[in-house]
Amino acid sequence: MTDRELILQRIRSAVANAPEPPEIARDYAERHHHGEPAELVELLAENLTGYRARVHRADDAGLPALVARLLAEHGDTSVAVPADLPAEWLSALTIDVRPDAPLSAVELDRTSAVITGCALAVAETGTIVLDAGPGQGRRALTLVPDHHVCVVRVPGQVYPSLPLAVPELDLRRPLTWISGPSATSDIELDRVEGVHGPRTLDVILLG
């Protein structure tokens, strides 16, 4: 018996005679904003900016040049990308592009940026969700490099609220929830960015 099986066996034994949990009330408001899709995109942009993410807009034709400019302005010399990221997104890059094969932890640490898509975004909370689906790569890919460029297709990937977004996700997948650049603060409330993930988050609203 493995350690995992032993732990699960003990948990099952401990709760074997526990009463059934009470029914959870689901009478809360599912959303607080009822605007048109364009208004939800504006709300997402506002909340992302409130979290200190940098928000940009592009269409398909302008995306490659914008991606190249953001990496250049940040001073990036290398960028990691999921193996299935659309090749046209990278067509204007002149720096070292490293497809994740996967890259080792050391190689990721030496890579200054990462470009991904996302699963969806939540307008009311300014949250982007990655689920390791197409164009997103594994979780470590977006947590190690210092600069994350994330592309959100709008309005199709924008949901008004968490209660409406969660049913669209497969909760068995490795979900990464991003609300701005990685940040924490100590007991004196001194904010430090880049501790648990990218120090800089650029979000491109593609539509």
From TrEMBL:
Pfam families: LUD_dom. Residues 42-206 form the LUD domain. The lineage of its organism: Bacteria, Bacillati, Actinomycetota, Actinomycetes, Catenulisporales. It comes from the Bacteria. It comes from Actinospica acidithermotolerans. This is LUD domain-containing protein.
